[in-house]
Amino acid sequence: MNKGKKLYEGKAKIIYSTNEKGLVIQHFKDDATAFNALKKANIEGKGVLNNRISEYLLNTLDQCGIPTHLVKRLNMREQLIRQAEIIPVEFVVRNIATGSLTKRLGISEGTILEKPLLEYYYKNDELGDPIISKEHIYSFEWAKKSEIETIDQMTMRINDILQGIFRGIGIKLVDFKIEYGRVWNKEKEINEIVLADEISPDTCRLWDIKTEKKLDKDRFRKDLGNIIEAYQEVARRLNIMPEETNISEVNFGKTIPLKFKKK
Ligand code: UDP
After folding, report:
1. Percent of the chain whose pLDDT exceeds 70
2. d(CA 166, CA 171)
3. 3-84+226-258 is classed in which CATH architecture?
4. Does the domain made of 85-208 have the CATH classification 3.30.470.20?
């Protein structure tokens, strides 16, 4: 399999074509953005960690019956994925109130929600990803009713599975954002909904159970420092990073390769 030309470059990832039909390469960059890209930085090693963490989480979800776009991780920064037609909606699940929910509706920070709250945002950088209702999705034909019904169910199941994974390693899954795409199933001759994009500390809020220390992108948004150490902590607790590796001492992508445990 050969890597072809760049098809798309986003804020944190690049998609490349391959010579295999229906397969593309997803490359994880070190770039971080926040507040609709008003705040930008390059955080050395972030892409490597997100690649590995997202691979682990999507593989685990796949084993639990959630179809995903992931085929396999290729190397430190790249994954082979199924090319999907991305639905232009960000699906956000909240278990604890924080971030835009507290700002928009005045809900107290840290309120435990009685049941998970699912929100929809229109994926459009120029408009700043505005919050929308299901009716907007149907009115503007961003997805069909049957697709959203499937996605809603899958999303709630993903929340249950991820909450279990993180609780088991002493982390509260506060909220997260996921995306879905359509992939053509040749045998069934239908479009299948698959979980796409990534699930990582860039797209989740993760708080240590005991100390409530933030182990996610809020460290960047709020200038809390030690971003890589926090992402590394998540990988270490997931047991996907060798104990002896200290990422803060590793020069990513340059001379010293970081080895991850084989599954
Ligand atoms: N999120 C994301 N990408 C976005 C917007 C949100 O990954 O473009 C994630 C974010 O990391 C958090 C959840 O979605 O885990 C809810 O984010 P919120 O709406 O509170 O966003 P804020 O405006 O506070 O970043």
Report:
1. 92
2. 5
3. 2-Layer Sandwich (3.30)
4. yes
